[in-house]
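Friendly challenge for the regulars: who can give me the structure tokens for this chain first? No prize, just bragging rights.
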Amino acid sequence: MAFVFENDHGIKTIDFSNPKGVKALNTALLVTHYGIKFWEFPDANLCPPIPGRVDYIHHLADLLKISDVHKEVTILDVGTGATCIYPILGHAEYNWKFIGTDIDKKSLQHAQEIVSKNTLDHGITLRHQENPLHIFNGVIKPSDRFTATLCNPPFYKSEVEAIAATTRKLKGLNKNEAGVVRNFSGTHNELWYKGGEKAFIHNYLYESAQFKDQCQWFTTLVSKKDLVRGIKVSLKKLGATEIKVVNMGQGNKISRIVAWTFL
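First reply, four minutes later:
Bragging rights claimed.
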């Protein structure tokens, strides 16, 4: 109850500007609704909002359903992070198997602890991406076959851009912006990428074409709506046979999933 307070309307709520309060709330959601009893990771790492993450999982399940996928589902999670959030949610909701990848060894160590302490080793495997310039090269093996990939790309081009976004958010929460603290935390690997979201996604698109026979559907979140047109153009040039855009909305945040296949 340390992070609960009564607002001006007499309603008890969470202090959403406090990273520890946000983390406590999301931990409680995982215990209550998904049976995840252990979910510990450094406060510096990004704390994912559970409703938005599980929304992506449900939309992916809908895509696989209309694609008439009945066999065992194996998902490749690009950038699984210290929280291992997509694998633990996808396994809890649909009993999918996952391979999670990340460029950060420390994040993978924390993710592995979450997997092991929730006895999920039979369904979730982790792999280290040694080259931060690559997405699939180096982690997809010749024998691998995936039903789908999922990814939540870094949104920002730099730390400066990430701090500016946080400052705007804190103003919206009527909080003092001095000593900016992100309410969902986040390390540089999780938040920014040279060239930003656009550069990351186009690298993702290009490498997906190199593994087009090993995965039925490739998917990614896309934060900026104006990127979608360029993504479609690039995918058609790369030979994608079908492209889908699924709109998502959680509270005031609007995002979308772009999915494509070469099969």
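The chain has eight helices and nine strands. Residues 177-186 have pLDDT under 50 and may be disordered. Your move, everyone else.
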